[in-house]
Amino acid sequence: MNAKEIRELFPILNQEVNGHPLVYLDSGATSQKPIQVIEAVQKYYHNDNSNVHRGVHTLGTRATDGYEGAREKVRKFIRAKSTEEIIFTRGTTTSINKVAASYARANLSEGDEIVISYMEHHSNIIPWQQVAKETGATLKYLPLQEDGTIALSDVSATITDQTKIVSVTLVSNVLGVINPIKDIAKIAHQHGAVMVVDAAQGAPHLKIDVQDLDCDFLAFSGHKMCGPTGIGVLYGKKQLLENMEPVEFGGEMIDFVGLYESTWKELPWKFEGGTPIIAGAIGLGAAIDFLEEIGLDQIEAHEHKLAAYALERLSEVEGMKIFGPKTAANRAGIVTFNLDDVHPHDVATVLDAEGIAIRAGHHCAQPLMKWLKQSATARASFYLYNTEEDIDKLTTGLIKTKEYFSDVF
Amino acid sequence: MSFNNLDTLYRQVIMDHYKNPRNKGVLEDDSLTVNMNNPTCGDRIQLTLKLEDGKVADAKFEGEGCSISMSSASMMTQAIKGKTKEEAVKLSHIFSDMMLGKDYDDDIDLGDIEALQGVSQFPARIKCATLAWKAMEKGMNEEDTAK
Ligand SMILES: Cc1ncc(COP(=O)(O)O)c(C=O)c1O
């Protein structure tokens, strides 16, 4: 895999920011889009735009084929059994909320437990807080090890026969840790709980096989994996989805509508009320084609190499504190850090003046920030278009930041 | 590498307030307390105000945040001491205009606060600078409704 060549396929990366070539290290927030995805969306609006599943005209057929074709691409991408298990949503947040609003509210009551971890993104915390409040269930947190990883002994100790839902992220958006989802799912199932996986940071970077993981639900967003914003996926096992009620009601999701009663379409459409995100799904399909042509294994290996290189180079910076595992084993391309005596906002502003885009703040993970005892941190996240040269520039930028702030003092 | 345009942001006075914050701490007892945070970035401030005869007799702040938010808090507490409530709120409006790059009332001597003017050229940092001022305005409003 040649990151330099891949980079050429992303028009946005070919620009100067504040007088310097852009170094984009914020793919964890959202990835950039290759020309193939931009063109697929454009082509749809140029040639095929129409509503889906309605009417018999030619454009309608093209739009429906494009939309349902994207569903099949997603199925293959995560190795699901059937497209009935692939629901298009607005993104990870909406996907998790759907599980909470439909499955959890119907199946949980007082005395039941929901188990999540300290490293979850707010979108995998708040829906469960709300379910807990409404059903009387208890929300429990898996503790973290010193290096930010989850120990299976803690998983066994936390999940009980009262646990009905376990929801954990595949990859932490802050620590970069890759969690042992397959093992956690096994423990959850031994206690009769369902396993929900937040794959927002996993799907862009790792090969996912929902049957091998044996998870019950899995959520991810298109925009973090080279696709457009506004499209995401909820995977659910068929036998669970079949017994769940829709969350949104209206057009597209109905079978028969009477004056006082209606019936729902079959899976997956009963969960897709209203005109769906057609262009978004087609763009996501193009993103999947793009990623698979390069190969998820290659992408994972590339990011792993970048993570190892970043850990090594950043450690050279005086006053650097890196959070999460100290080595690149089981780490995705995310490195979160703080510089002594320089607030992460100030770090981000100084780097931005050099054309380097990183993220500073709490990364939508306030419970984790509390665990790390930080009010905010800086994060560099890498993707297939990043190179070791980007990390060299980051390192140089950080050394200069340090110097700049000791000079102004 | 040149950081020239950064110098318009990180002025000496700002760094001085960041490193040696004025009025850091918490006022005791029956002072007015306002907590405010910036939900998008994690900055947090606790402002305590003591009002006597319609004037700010004392003001202190505690908090966590970047150089801009903390220096702005330090300057704000310094500026409002001895001012009437109305004057303090007016100052906050002037500050807000300054951040938005609007013309502002320059009859009033702004002292150190003037140094924060450069923030207006860094749109992503404006909310850092205004946090303490918003907290102060909120405190003054609460004081009004409590009466
Ligand atoms: C781990 C994780 N979960 C969930 C989300 C939420 O994704 P979205 O905002 O696309 O719904 C994010 C994105 O920031 C994330 O990093």
TrEMBL record, chain B:
<protein>
    <submittedName>
        <fullName>SUF system NifU family Fe-S cluster assembly protein</fullName>
    </submittedName>
</protein>
<dbReference type="GO" id="GO:0005506">
    <property type="term" value="F:iron ion binding"/>
</dbReference>
<comment type="similarity">
    <text>Belongs to the NifU family.</text>
</comment>
<dbReference type="GO" id="GO:0016226">
    <property type="term" value="P:iron-sulfur cluster assembly"/>
</dbReference>
<dbReference type="GO" id="GO:0051536">
    <property type="term" value="F:iron-sulfur cluster binding"/>
</dbReference>
<dbReference type="InterPro" id="IPR002871">
    <property type="entry name" value="NIF_FeS_clus_asmbl_NifU_N"/>
</dbReference>
<dbReference type="Pfam" id="PF01592">
    <property type="entry name" value="NifU_N"/>
</dbReference>
<feature type="domain" description="NIF system FeS cluster assembly NifU N-terminal">
    <location>
        <begin position="10"/>
        <end position="128"/>
    </location>
</feature>
